[in-house]
Specification:
Distance between the termini: 78 Å
Number of strands: 24
CATH class of the domain at 24-200 and 474-547: Alpha Beta
CATH topology of the domain at 24-200 and 474-547: FAD/NAD(P)-binding domain
Structural class: alpha+beta
Number of helices: 12
Length: 557
């Protein structure tokens, strides 16, 4: 009996110690993305304690990871802390000390989101500028930042009565809170908490859409009855390119990264997700440039389709090189064979950490090999090589010696399935919600999912959708919180509840910042009212959002 008593006493003491060791906050945010930072600032301003747990050593996600060409659509749709960020970017670049490699007057913004004269904000920036601005914005706030801590996805979420009590990291560190926000691109906290989610494309029939599922046609009928160009021909081969290792010989096998099974049936769903890439920050300044280097594991077959495309007469440079300040760029995918590593990310959302790191490495190796090929391979036209080889990665942007960032462009991963799913109907304003927590203003957009062989025996890409021209539309509060029976104290502003094609419109960094702030506002209101997120009075939430200058109604073009 004495041994049993001592054993129970030890267990009680151990349990007590574990509870004591868990740091307690009002709001625990997992993921220091732009959405996570925006949420943390809002919690701090509303007088509650908050911690941001970031799995890497760098805040800001894609906003500080190379995505300086801001995809917005209508700038007037962006309010609150998100607009503050872009206003602070302008203030940053009004300081002459921040123009090291270029004079301010020599910078010309040629991107799709130009900063017009007399604007109070600036929409293009270096990754380092974004990082500096974020750090300045959190400097005077009461926010704890924890770096290099990853969630124990197997058993790290402690739930009771549909409430998350605490989350534990792989290191054993534990954080308890009244409210939690999953601000990651992957939705790891959401998934580990047992929340319903999906991955991939729904069929068109799932939500009565026309732009979801497999998309091989260049035209389709929109929900409002119009014939729209889906631009499936964009970023696609405009010449007949042989897909086989030995040209004309199917028995020789397909070149790498081509789906032998074919694209699937038009409009059908699948588990494929749009391609990832690195949003490269390049420079042509000789003193700051790191020349493109041939990877040690370079495999020429990975670029044979590109080489054959040039052999067939293609004469362009397959990138969008948007100018950023200080003679730098935000370089993104364009054309049939580019920085998108098409079809090589489908396992990423559910993969373990080690597997994800390997996928990231393969993407970097692919992209490094692509840039070396364009700059130096003898089968690339000399004119193209000359134009590409003047560029390189930057010495002064990221921690890696090769100038490459660690943040991969996770365009899409898990998506929550809540009591309200944003769909194409919302994007086209056929259906409008009455519980807005922000506006989306970009067109319905998806990058390619796969590369396949046509019936004629040539290679083609599939999945690209670009349908623009619709006004900003409201995003439902219900789409950033789980179903009531699943969890009362978790908000999900990034991997929100949306169909694939609707997410393709919503998934922009300024919108994630907006939704992060709104998720934080709802969390604080729920704490103060001692209610679950599904139980708070939307009118109270709306009042606070408007007070904090969030935009909730459609704005003019």
């Amino acid at each position: 009996m004495k041994r049993i008593y001592l054993g129970l006493l030890a267990l009680i003491i151990l349990t007590s110690c574990n509870q004591t060791n868990a740091k307690k906050y009002d709001v625990v945010i997992y993921g220091g993305t732009s959405a996570g930072i925006s949420a943390a600032i809002q919690v701090s301003r509303m007088g509650k304690s908050v911690v941001v747990i970031e799995p890497t050593n760098r805040l800001g996600g894609l906003t500080t990871g190379g995505l300086g060409q801001t995809d917005i659509g209508n700038k007037q749709a962006i309010g609150g802390i998100a607009r503050e960020f872009y206003q602070n970017i302008r203030i940053y670049y009004n300081n002459p000390e921040n123009w090291k490699w270029q004079k301010k007057e020599d910078y010309k913004d040629g991107g799709q989101t130009r900063t017009e004269k007399n604007e109070d904000a600036m929409w293009t920036f270096e990754p380092s500028a974004a990082l500096s601005v974020f750090h300045a914005m959190i400097k005077d706030e009461k926010i704890d930042i924890i770096y290099n801590e990853r969630l124990n996805r197997a058993s790290g979420v402690a739930k009771k009565y549909n409430l998350i009590k605490s989350i534990k990291m792989e290191s054993g560190k534990e954080f308890s809170g009244k409210m939690f926000i999953d601000a990651t691109y992957e939705g790891d906290l959401m998934a580990s908490a047992g929340i319903s989610y999906t991955i991939g494309r729904e069929s068109n029939s799932k939500y009565n859409e026309t732009l979801n599922g497999v998309q091989t046609n260049s035209e389709t009928i929109s929900l409002n009855g119009e014939i729209v160009k889906t631009r499936s021909n964009n970023h696609n081969f405009q010449k007949r390119i042989d897909p086989y290792v030995i040209k004309g010989n199917p028995e020789s096998g397909l070149l790498p990264h081509i789906n032998a099974a074919g694209p699937g049936k038009e409009g059908d769903g699948d588990k494929k997700i749009q391609a990832y890439c690195f949003r490269m920050c390049l420079t042509d300044h000789p003193e700051n440039r790191i020349p493109f280097k041939k990877p040690d594991n370079y495999n020429e077959k990975h670029y044979e389709l590109l080489l054959r495309y040039y052999d067939a007469g293609f004469g362009g440079i397959p990138w969008i090189n948007s100018q950023m300040p200080n003679r730098k760029t935000d370089t993104n995918n364009r054309e049939a064979f580019s920085t998108d590593f098409i079809g090589q990310n489908h396992y990423y959302p559910e993969a373990g950490y080690a597997e994800r790191e390997e996928i990231v490495r393969l993407h970097r190796d692919y992209q490094q090999g692509l840039m070396w090929t364009l700059a130096y391979h003898e089968r690339i036209p000399e004119e193209i090589r000359k134009r590409v080889s003047v560029w390189g990665t930057c010495k002064d942007e990221f921690e890696r010696e090769d100038g490459w960032q660690n943040q991969l462009y996770i365009r899409e991963a898990r998506r929550m399935v809540s009591s309200y799913v944003m769909t194409q109907k919302n994007c086209e304003s056929i259906e409008t919600v009455d519980d807005a927590v922000g506006l989306a203003a970009y067109g319905m957009d998806s990058h390619h999912m796969q590369r396949y062989v046509t019936k004629g025996g040539y290679v083609r890409n599939e999945g690209n959708i670009e349908v623009h021209g619709h006004p900003p539309y409201p995003i439902s509060y219900r789409s950033i919180i789980p179903k009531k029976g699943e969890c009362k104290n978790l908000a999900v502003p990034v991997c929100l509840s949306a169909s694939h094609i609707a997410f393709g419109s919503i998934r922009m960094e300024p919108v994630f910042m907006v939704l992060g702030q709104s998720a934080a506002t709802a969390s604080v209101i729920a704490i103060e009212g001692k209610k679950g997120l599904q139980e708070i009075d939307y009118s109270n939430l709306k009042e606070q959002l408007l007070k904090d200058k969030q935009q909730l109604k459609n704005v003019d073009h």
